Amino acid sequence: MMEPTALESSKESARDAALSAAPGWQWSERPPSLFRRFQFGSYGQTRQFLDRLAEQSDALGVQPQNINFGTTYVNVTISASGPNLSESECRLAAELGRLATA
Amino acid sequence: MMEPTALESSKESARDAALSAAPGWQWSERPPSLFRRFQFGSYGQTRQFLDRLAEQSDALGVQPQNINFGTTYVNVTISASGPNLSESECRLAAELGRLATA
Lengths: 102, 102
Prior knowledge:
Two copies of one chain form a homodimer. Helices cover 48% and strands 21% of the residues of chain A. Chain A has helices at residues 6-21, 43-60, 87-101; strands at residues 26-28, 33-39, 66-69, 73-79. In chain A, a hairpin with a 4-residue loop joins strand 1 and strand 2 (33-39).
């Protein structure tokens, strides 16, 4: 079996670091991104989550690549603004995960 | 050429009514929907539009089927909650069009 190149192993560790910081999110490459679907019981809860998402986003200075929502769901994609997801980008994902399960 | 059935012509008039009430939107069927992409110069303008969209949505009691946004764009889909788009659904589309060009 061929040894992973230095680049491959650094990519893997970046992915593993992001996923351990933000459990419940899905990872994708090109660009490195975290994706998660949040489901809610009512439009009111969805709107509350969106408001708090905006607050966290402002506080961390991180703007999700895309937010896609309907009355009872919010799909969030956070993409790396650099070569890998930054600490703040991972923290936003982690905070949103906590918000949704709070 | 075959005459359109009563159903077909009522569908066409519903589509024409919606598009004349909400210029700049695209029409699609199943379900009858209006779609439009709004482009903005900054994340701040995007957020302002989203806030006002939420106000209009509350005021008219109409919740868009889907809102999909990034830092400088907002894609809005308003789908008929009944057999055809209601007056309020068309009004929300018209209001959003005015907001974006104001």
